[in-house]
Amino acid sequence: MVREDPGKVLAILAELERLEDERQTEVPQGVISTGLPSLDAALVVKGIPRGHITHCCGDNYAGKTVALCHVAESVTSTNGSVVVADLDRSFHFKYMKDIGVDINNIEFIRTREIQTITRTLEICVEHGVDLFILDSLAALPAIPSLDTREVGRIQDIIHGSRTAVIISNQNRVGKHGMCPCYAEIMDMISPITFYLKTHHHVVSDGQIVGHYVNAHVVKNRFSPATFIPRLRLIYGSGFDKADSLLELMILDGRVQRAGSWYYYDGEPYQGREELRRCLENELRPFARA
Predict the structure, then answer these.
(1) DSSP strands (E only) in 159-285
(2) Taking residues 37-63, what's their average pLDDT?
(3) Cβ distance 153 to 165 under 8 Å?
(4) For tag attachment on the chain, is the N or C end more exposed, with fewer CB atoms within 10 Å?
(5) pTM for the structure as a whole
(6) What is the Cα–Cα distance from 286 to 279, expressed in whole angstroms?
(7) What is residue 35's DSSP assignment?
(8) What's the CATH architecture for 6-287?
């Protein structure tokens, strides 16, 4: 049962606002938020660093493109600019709008010419574009006569700039191991890497409405990962921001757990889902902020 005590709702809202303000004050100028507080915390530097490559990889249907959409939403919500090299044609305008992305601040290029991609990136750096997305790296080894050295130039192009680059990739491993071309590219660009792995389903009223995703930060040149956040992916609407905030509150110790019970400010909630629903139903405007 969802509690509707106005005083308790206001207390939770004040706590969430305090957490969000604290996160924003701690985020350095050279970092872009992923839009998911728990994932920001796992990346240690509080998000996606500018002037560096971040590699988002994972299983099929793990939510890689959705995660990129959330980062794009975080940028466009502050009138930032985004350029997407959509090699796999996996970005759909309607879905991006449903997540909250302002597609008017996004430019798409759909080419598999790596020289065109790197030249576009150079122009983005010259004009101070905030975010450049390459989706996906798995499509590149299939390109005839691919010059891997051209891909390796990406880090050189963005070094010291305000442009952050995110490259997504599916786990396409053949019977003889990782594609040699892919391994060579990874050695060249040496990115920060987080891996999305699907977990159990999200079930509501007996229907599967999504699934949980564990985000493993497997490589971070700045400092070791502190924890593995569990993200709640809902089909058609993206990752659950309220659940991500709740994950961070549990990590910070502001929400305590005893068995199946969760306690916030001395108030008991029977199960995580009850507390999550309180945040989602009563604080929906803040959860979307």
Answers:
(1) 164-170, 173-174, 177-178, 192-204, 207-219, 230-234, 238-239, 255-258, 261-264, 267-270
(2) 87
(3) no
(4) N
(5) 0.80
(6) 9
(7) S
(8) 3-Layer(aba) Sandwich (3.40)
